[in-house]
């Protein structure tokens, strides 16, 4: 049994459960971010520090920022300011804040106790991943770049249509 | 403390998160929440890949996670652009409101 993994897993499940039951999109987004941070801690415990960093940077960072942008664009109006003040009440952020605090305590505890002692060879480093990525998985990288290019073209085209309609 | 997470615990976490995401997609009718639940499901598959990769100490799991991450980023950018476009025509986020398939 591994206490760090168990606590992170429980936080992830709780945050996801809260996310799908919130009426407001911003509250759901806060819980989703906490859930993704908990998943990053799970990756770290599992000996995948590179994946943990990517989870924080891309999922909890970039993708969440996209959601925040869209929620901001959909909330233009007089009622938005009133809604904004309602969102700043402590009841809105106390739940995600407590769950995130739990994760932070876990992280500080890990740092204070000198980290997790992985068995020899259990940590798959970023270097190993990178070597495999440009070696046997080169074709997969090319396919991923095709996908990103297609998404870029589609988002640009749809964004132009949004600007034209408005 | 030697870290050793059993395979079944990690896969159980991935399965529970996937089920929660699926329930979110099926239960919620708000397009933003459906998209966020899709993110949860993709993240759960990523957890499953990482757990399996850690079980055999191989980099393949993390590579599949990176590909899932790429897919999630592409999906969310196109999905959010579609939501914005639909919101201009039908000013609601209800998924059932857009069932007429007219241009």
Question: Can you walk me through this structure?
Answer:
- The complex is a heterodimer of chains A (about 170) and B (about 100).
- The mean pLDDT of chain A is about 85.
- With about 170 residues, chain A is mainly α.
- Chain A has seven helices and no strands.
- Chain A is flat and about 60 Å long.
- In chain A, helix 1 runs antiparallel to helix 5, helix 2 (about 25-45) packs antiparallel against helix 3 (about 50-75) and helix 2 (about 25-45) packs parallel to helix 5 (about 90-110).
- Chain A folds into two domains: about 5-120, Up-down Bundle (Four Helix Bundle (Hemerythrin (Met), subunit A)); about 135-165.
- With about 100 residues, chain B is mostly helical.
- Chain B has a single domain, classed as Helix Hairpins (Orthogonal Bundle).
- Helix content of chain B is about 75%, strand content about 0%.
- Chain B has helices at about 5-25, 30-55, 60-90.
- In chain B, helix 2 (about 30-55) packs antiparallel against helix 3.
- The longest helix of chain B has 30 residues, at about 60-90.
- The mean pLDDT of chain B is about 85.
- At the A-B interface, helix 1, helix 2, helix 3, helix 6 and helix 7 of A face helix 1, helix 2 and helix 3 of B.
